[in-house]
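Design review, sub-item: ligand-bound model
Attendees: FS, YL, KQ
YL presented the inputs for the adenosine monophosphate complex:
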Amino acid sequence: MQTSLQDTLLAAIRTIPDYPKPGIRFRDITTLLGDARAFRRAVDELVHPYAGSKIDKIAGIEARGFILGGAIAHQLSSGFVPIRKKGKLPHETVRVAYSLEYGIDEMEMHKDAVAAGHKVILVDDLIATGGTAEGAVRLLRQMGAEIVAACFVIDLPDLGGRARLEALDVPVRTLVSFAGD
Ligand code: AMP
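KQ shared the predicted structure:
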């Protein structure tokens, strides 16, 4: 019997209780990335609706969004844009402050990484409160990009991130969800 996509992905994601601080259940995708079949199925499924469309850039959020985003960019024949924590990019940047499920930080993108009118898909491993993804949306829109979608392997719907992005008119695609936080 063919295992469903959901079962394959859920079985490949490892949950670490109380990491990085007490009360957080960390959804670890390194086990999914290490499983050839699960990794391929996740990437194939995330790109499926966009196959054949012209997507100029995939924007990946540091660090797990780089791994998924690189594979997605390859599949869609798109360029890749890294969105990084502040101070890591060598050229001129645009910067935005954002809130995390566990803290506050700033992220940056190179000023010339996307051009006005570029069609962009945003990628990260997981959406929780949506603060990180919203920061990335603001950066990309500041440069005039058109955000076609934001894609995540994991949704934590109780934390409201999907609704927060949809309120910004960003279509959201996720593959599995976990109740609670
Ligand atoms: P948020 O900004 O609240 O949507 O948080 C999303 C970002 O934090 C993503 O880059 C995730 O990788 C990371 N993150 C937040 N919560 C978790 C969690 N429970 N397990 C794994 N990663 C998480």
